[in-house]
Design a protein that fits this description.
This protein is α/β, with parallel strands linked by helices and 176 residues long. The chain is 45% helix and 19% strand. The chain is built from eight helices and seven strands. The longest helix has 13 residues, at 22-34.
């Protein structure tokens, strides 16, 4: 990150994608979490760029993300073809443990939302084994019809971070 605090980005099909390396993303995310206000961190893969091209609302959501990063090689290759090369892809599975470690130290709480019935529970069990001090405020599967009921549940437990995994563009539209 530049000294001004602004995250360097490259415009890929109208979407500002963070121009960061894998080793840089965890500190940037931690700094953003520690600042006040709502943040959205979005993974951008080839599928997302294709959807954004056909769906103006989804495109706007990606454009307005606090941090959008290339989670697959597709956006990286597109950036090179467009002459605005991103340094590398940043798959969440390659840095998320750093975030969980920091969260365990700072006592940030998580709410996990998504997947089929039973998946979130298994994820919570796995996380608690790997990060015994990690605070899980709650979880729910991603197949629900009553948004306000889920929002009420989340608001009751007041997590610091909500991890949403319901597939694009549903998850991005749900969080905005």
């Amino acid at each position: 990150m530049k000294s001004s605090g602004k995250i360097p980005t490259k415009m890929i099909f109208g979407i500002p994608i963070a121009s960061l390396r894998l080793k840089e993303i965890s500190p940037v995310i931690v700094k953003l979490i520690e600042s006040s206000g709502k943040k959205t961190f979005l993974c951008v893969a080839t599928h997302h760029l294709n959807l954004a091209n056909r769906d103006p609302l989804f495109n706007k959501i990606l454009q307005r993300a606090t941090l959008a990063f290339a989670s697959s090689i597709g956006p990286v290759l597109a950036s090179r073809i467009l002459g605005r090369p991103l340094p590398e892809r940043i798959p969440p599975e390659d840095f998320i443990d750093n975030i969980f470690t920091k969260a365990s130290e700072t006592k940030w709480s998580f709410y996990l939302l998504g997947g089929e019935k039973g998946v979130a529970e298994k994820a919570v069990e796995s996380l608690q084994k790997r990060f015994p001090n990690l605070s899980i405020a709650g979880f729910h599967h991603g197949f629900f019809t009553n948004n306000s009921e889920i929002i009420d549940k989340i608001n009751v437990v007041k997590p610091d971070i909500i991890l949403v995994g319901m597939g694009a563009p549903r998850q991005e539209k749900w969080i905005t």
